[in-house]
């Protein structure tokens, strides 16, 4: 018989959210139990569903009295609390890795803008602003392809981040994904069960 689950942590998220997924992979890799609260449509304007996040975005982590906003800050909190050895290199200072993290976050945010604009009735192919946002995804991916050697085979938060970004791009199909080096990294980094089990559907 399985031991009864009694998670003390709650993660406000959605099954498809790429920002939530990098945190979910880290939680699973650290073997930390968490209750996932699916907020539903992230385009909604609501003060209730987002776990007290005034920006109305996921993920938000609630760990007893502690509420943490922002995916990378949640990851840093988790490691400081529960993984003193920082096995997955969350607490990095290296500028190349920080830049890589920034580019991936930028690509992911740009995708959110396009998806939520379309979801709320805006035609995204008739505005210069959205052309720039779409172009930033393409240039961001080109930058990542050029720097793909930064993604090591060993499991790391940077790798969790890449897989979360890539699978979401694949699902929403907003830009062509002709980036063979990144594709190969994702294939290799997706092997662990704790990565696969959170794949968006
Ligand atoms: N910088 C934030 C970005 C979070 C984010 O954009 N989440 C999306 C879902 S993947 C969201 O909730 N968007 C709602 C909105 O932009 O209105 C983080 O890293 O946590």
Q: What report would you give on this structure?
A:
This protein folds into 2 domains: 9-82, Glutaredoxin (3-Layer(aba) Sandwich), CATH 3.40.30.10; 95-192, Glutathione S-transferase Yfyf (Class Pi), Chain A, domain 2, CATH 1.20.1050.10. The protein contains 7 helices and 4 strands. The chain has helices at residues 18-29, 71-82, 95-119, 128-146, 157-172, 180-189, 193-196, and strands spanning 9-13, 34-38, 60-63, 66-69. The longest helix is centred in the middle third of the chain and has 25 residues, at 95-119. The two termini are 29 Å apart. Glutathione (GSH) is lined by residues 17-19, 42, 56-59, 70-71, 109, 112, 116.
Give a quick rundown of the structure:
This protein is of the alpha+beta class and 201 residues long. The protein is built from seven helices and four strands, in the order E-H-E-E-E-H-H-H-H-H-H. The mean pLDDT is 95.
How do the helices and strands line up, and which of them pair or pack?
Layout: E1 9-13, H1 18-29, E2 34-38, E3 60-63, E4 66-69, H2 71-82, H3 95-119, H4 128-146, H5 157-172, H6 180-189, H7 193-196
Parallel strand pairs: 1-2
Antiparallel strand pairs: 1-3, 3-4
Helix pairs in contact: 1-2, 1-5, 3-4, 3-5, 5-6
Bound molecules: glutathione.
The site of glutathione has 13 residues, from helix 1 and helix 3.
Shape: globular
Query: Structural class of the helix and strand makeup?
Result: alpha+beta
Give the CATH topology of the largest domain: Glutathione S-transferase Yfyf (Class Pi), Chain A, domain 2
Ions, cofactors, ligands: which are bound? glutathione
């Amino acid at each position: 018989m399985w031991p009864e689950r009694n998670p003390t942590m709650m993660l406000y998220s959605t099954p498809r959210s790429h920002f939530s997924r990098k945190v979910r992979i880290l939680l699973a890799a650290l073997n930390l139990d968490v209750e996932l609260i699916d907020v539903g449509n992230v385009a909604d304007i609501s003060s209730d569903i987002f776990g007290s996040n005034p920006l109305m975005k996921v993920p938000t982590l609630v760990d007893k009295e502690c509420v943490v906003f922002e995916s990378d800050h949640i990851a840093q909190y988790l490691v400081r609390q529960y993984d003193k050895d920082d096995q997955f290199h969350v607490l990095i200072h290296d500028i190349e890795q920080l830049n890589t993290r920034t580019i991936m976050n930028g690509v992911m945010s740009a995708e959110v803008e396009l998806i939520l604009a379309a979801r709320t009735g805006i035609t995204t192919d008739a505005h210069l602003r959205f052309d720039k946002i779409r172009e930033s995804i393409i240039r961001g991916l080109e930058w990542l392809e050029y720097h793909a050697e930064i993604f090591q085979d060993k499991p790391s938060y940077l790798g969790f981040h890449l897989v979360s970004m890539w699978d979401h791009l694949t699902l929403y199909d907003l830009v062509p994904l002709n980036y063979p080096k990144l594709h190969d990294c994702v294939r290799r980094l997706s092997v662990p069960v704790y990565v696969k089990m959170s794949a968006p559907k």
